Each structure stands twice: as structure tokens, then as C-alpha cells.
Amino acid sequence: MMSALLGKKIGMTNVFSSDGKLVPVTVVQVGPCVVTQIKTIESDGYNALQLGFDEKPVEKLNKPMAGHLKKASDKGFRVLKEFRTDDVESVEAGATIGIDIFTVGDKVNISGISKGRGFQGTIKRHGFQRGPETHGSRNHRKPGSIGNSAWPGKVFKGKKLPGHMGVNRETVKNLTIVDIKHDDNLLLVKGPVPGFKTGILEVRKTDK
What we know:
By secondary structure, this protein is mainly beta.
């Protein structure tokens, strides 16, 4: 049984639980995903399903991609992603996998690309403390001393310093599905998930 799908981040809101508590949730549009290719041990050395998500006009695809997708579907997709699974015999190319594989209360791991923050200092990037702002101090947001003595006389690699922040693949684990809107293919997941609005996400069920 397929345990992962592609989705799109819609935004955040909050809902009331059955015991009256206000729960912050992220709304994720999950699927429907179309099986665009089936990979097996005999032909590719491993079992996997390639899923297509977010329809795109076929006319806007280049010829190699249009030819690849034509084998399974007459639709185009903006995103293609492989997911490993052992259950490839019961699925046919062109089949649609929807939000029905998830149920309320399931735990999921959600992966996506974090928001880009550009070049940032150590306070925002690494959570450093700032310096004093009074008594003539000139050290407000500087990283501070990072050098060594005569030996080794250099700054070690990996030192936390200012630099590019964001645009990394991040995974938030063990998020709980609070509600499912089947008619609109929406998952309401407790807590935040990586990325910006409309960002592509991978939603995987987990047993942990």
C-alpha cells in the first residue's frame, strides 16, 4: 500500500479540538497523484512508483517529458517524484492515488524546501545572543572572537558564522493529522511545516 504522496502548502490556521482546545494547523493540499511510471526489480533494480502532481498543460511540456508522460496519462504535471514501495503489482500506470490513504490521527513526516532568508548574521541564523546596547559597547550583533592562539592559528571549518540561510531540504517528523477534507483533498496537520505558501511537500506516513 502506498504510504506517501505529494502535496502543496496552502497556509496556516487554527481549529478547535473535541475538548475545546485551540490547535494550530497547517493546511496541505495532498494529491490526487497520478502514477506516471512503475519501476520494478526486474527492469530497474528496485521497486518504486513515480507520481505526478499539479497538472500542467501538455502543450507547455518539452517533447521528451511529454513523450514520457504519454505512456501513462494524457495529462502533464509540474512535479514528478519517485517513492519506494514493495506494492507495485497491484498498481497500474495511469492510476490515481488520493488522500484516502490517510486517516485522522495518523502520524506523518513532511519534507519540503525551507524559506530562503538570504545572507543573515549569527543571531538570526544560529540563535546567538546579542551584545550589550549601553555603556559604550560597540558589540551589538557581531559574532565575537572566533580566532585561536599561535596554534593552530586558524578558524576551524564548520564554525557558525554569518552566511546564506534557508533553501534547504527540511523534514518535520511525527506530525498529527487533525482533520481531513476529502472533497477538497486537504489535510489539516498539527503544527508548522517547511516552506512557503504553494511550496511542494512530500507527506509520508510513519509508524513511530
